[in-house]
Specification:
Elements (H helix, E strand, L loop, with lengths): L2 E5 L3 H13 L3 E5 L2 H11 L3 E4 L8 H11 L4 E5 L4 H9 L4 E4 L4 H14 L11 E3 L2 E4 L4 E4 L2 E3 L3 H11 L5 E3 H9 L7 H14 L10 E4 L3 E4 L7
Parallel strand pairs: 1-2, 1-3, 3-4, 4-5
Antiparallel strand pairs: 6-7, 7-8, 8-9, 10-12, 11-12
Helix pairs in contact: 2-3, 6-7, 6-8
Length: 231
Amino acid sequence: MARLLLIEDDLTIRTPLIRALRERGHAVAAASTAMAGLRDALEDRPDLVVLDLGLPDLDGRELLRMLRAVSAVPVIVATARDDETEIVQVLDAGADDYVVKPFTAAQLDARVRAVLRRGPSGADGQVPALVVGGLRVDPRARQVTLDGVAVELTPREFDLLHHLAGRPGQVVTKRELLTEVWQIPYGGADKTVDVHLSWLRRKLGENAQQPRYLHTVRGVGVRLEAPAAQP
């Protein structure tokens, strides 16, 4: 299941498209303006964005440039504009694919699956899972297993664990976590990190007093490492 963000202002298009994509197994959120879409893309970290160009507050091409400045999330442009020069410009600006209205949900679904198969580098192949001891974090499927047993995480918990698993044995500061995972500046929000770490520990079957994977370094941050690495 992919988490999609649909940025489309036309309700007569947005509503049936959300329904059809959900029927095909995707989790779909939607925004009707460019700025709302930018905010949702940064806060919710979807797997892919479907972007209309004719938005009421900002042209979709400008939103694409803004999004590309802060995120590598795959973007499929879905619009009625069919000028070849514009299509080339949008692809050069960072769009991963372009579909012209009218199109069916089945066509869009096929394009979504094709773009996601390419991975973040744009090349076909699988994004490798991160393995730390008995912990396995699969960024493609956004799934986590611990000693072979699935661990159900919220999207934010997954992003937090994925960031830490990519730096095993390193102390990661709260400042870095707020910047990279939450994409917000440091200052007054470090309790957010503490709360999510507490929830994550609980789901991994540990706590701060008896850590297995998540080790607090007081006054600095947190370190993720395999239990076997401990003396």
